[in-house]
Structure formats: structure tokens, C-alpha cells
Amino acid sequence: MQIVKTRKELKKLLASWKAAGEELGVVMTMGALHAGHLGLVEAASKDNDKVIATIFINPKQFDNKNDLASYPIDTDEDLRKLKQAGVDAVYLPQAGEMYPEGYSTTVSVAAMQDCLCGATRPGHMDGVTTVVTKLLIQISPDRAYFGQKDFQQYLLIQRVVRDLDLPVDIIGVPTYREEGRLAMSSRNRRLNEAQRKIAPTLFQVQNTIRDLVLQGESVDHVLEWGEKVILEAGFDKIDYLELRSEENLTLISETATREAVMGSRIFVAAWLGTTRLIDNLSISR
């Protein structure tokens, strides 16, 4: 497994692969890897001749400096996991490589930004779409793989690629879950033993909401019930618990058609102490 840290090194490596006519898949990460990341690598390996992973803790997508400062870092262990998973190369740039002195450009998607994490984490989504666009341009992969736990991010990246005519296929991979069905996340490492027992409540509530909505229960009533259960379980705060379209994140209301409801997802973000957990679940599954 090769490790490259600069655009110059990256360009040289990619040129040799492209010259050989090999198709390339990319998995972008901020490190602190778990089985969900490795699932993306597995999917990329099945579709492509070569797989490159990136590890870059992107400062532009953190709206909270304390969150950035406390983000878990274990690069040596991450590299070990990627090598064991069969990754061909890892791009490991520093902040100055990605955002050199004088950098002043932001890639921002006007649509689908005013809700969910876009509303509760100012600047976060612009940071995501900016760094992903830069990496797609630098690497020029045939395919890029993203976990659907961050579903809003996944939709926004699809929109960037479509709107800017970037020649890459964006592949969404279903959420990987821990025992108890908690969505895998690097931030799960922050949870203490008591919080880990509480955290699976998010999936349990989403699962029940899905069942009740499919049975014809009132959307507003069921979501109100879900918020109550989450808080009573021990969560400190809920940023959102909503039903939105899988296609464009339009809010699903009481007057929505059955077809609209069936094409929606339940989205939730809630806090356990200083740890913010997010998840989503398709209504139709």
C-alpha cells in the first residue's frame, strides 16, 4: 500500500494507473476508521481495479472548534486497517496542502442546505462539498463511495457532481450498524458505558416510527411521540426528528400523499452529553 501526502506525489501515482487503463474507486474519510469505512472499501474493491482512500480531518466542516479539537485521531491504526482491507494507496494530505495560503473558494449547493445538519451546523455542508469537490478533482476517480448514514451529505455531493459535470459516479452504501443497531460513527468512541446503553434508542424509535407511519398513523403525532421517548431515554437534546423526501429533502407533512411518504426517510440528530449522533431510516424498507 502506497502512502502519498502531496498533490505532486498523487498526480504521479494516478498517472501510472490511468496509463494502464485501470478503473479507480475512492473512499474519503477523516480517519478514526470503523467497520462502516471498511465496508465502503469493500464495495469499491468489487467495482474497481484500484482503490485509493483519503484521510483528511477537514477543518472547514467543523462549526464547533471544540468538536474539531476532540476529533479522534489514530493514523497508524487507520493505515493498518486500510492495508489489511486491500487498499492500494492512501492520500494523506496536511491542511496546507488542501488549503494553501490565500485559499478563498467555497463550493456551496443552494438546494437542500436549509434543513437537517445544514440548519443546525452552520457552514458544515459547505465545508463538506468544498473538500469533496477538491478531492474529486485531484483524484479523478471513476467512482466515489459514501455511506448513507450521512444522507444529506450524500445527496449534496450527488448534486455537485451533476451540476458541475464532474465525470464520476457517486455510489451510496447503506449504513453499517453496531450491535444494538446504533449507526457506526467515529464519534461513538466518545460514548461512555452508560451512554452506549442509551444510544440504540435512536434506531428503535426510528423503526417504530416507520411501522406506525406505514400503518397510517399521524406523522406529526408519531414524531412528537418519538421526541418524547428519545429524551426520556436519557438524550440531552434533539436537533431534529423529521420525515423528509429521499430525493430532495422536502419536509413530509400531514397532507403528503402516500407516494410521498413511501419515498421518504426518518432523519434524527440528538445529543448524548457532548456527543452528537445522527441516523436515518427509509420508510419503505
Quickly count the domains. Answer: 2
Instruction: Classify the secondary structure makeup into a structural class.
Output: alpha/beta
**What is the helical fraction, as a range of percent?**
40-55%
CATH topology name of the largest domain, in short, is Rossmann fold
Judging from the principal axes of the Cα atoms, what is the shape? globular
Offer a few descriptive terms.
285 residues, alpha/beta, Rossmann fold, Pantoate--beta-alanine Ligase, Chain: A,domain 2, 2 domains, six-stranded parallel β-sheet, three-stranded antiparallel β-sheet, 12 helices, 9 strands, 42% helix, 19% strand
Describe the structure.
By secondary structure, the chain is of the alpha/beta class. The protein folds into two domains: 2-173, Rossmann fold, CATH 3.40.50.620; 186-282, Pantoate-beta-alanine ligase, C-terminal domain (Pantoate--beta-alanine Ligase, Chain: A,domain 2, 2-Layer Sandwich). It is built from twelve helices and nine strands. It has helices at 7-19, 35-47, 65-69, 75-84, 95-98, 116-120, 124-139, 151-163, 193-198, 201-214, 219-233, 258-262; strands spanning 2-4, 24-29, 50-55, 89-91, 143-147, 169-173, 237-245, 264-272, 275-282. Strands 1-4-3-2-5-6 form a six-stranded parallel sheet, with helices on both faces. Strands 7-8-9 form a three-stranded antiparallel sheet. Helix 7 crosses helix 8 and helix 10 runs antiparallel to helix 11 (219-233).
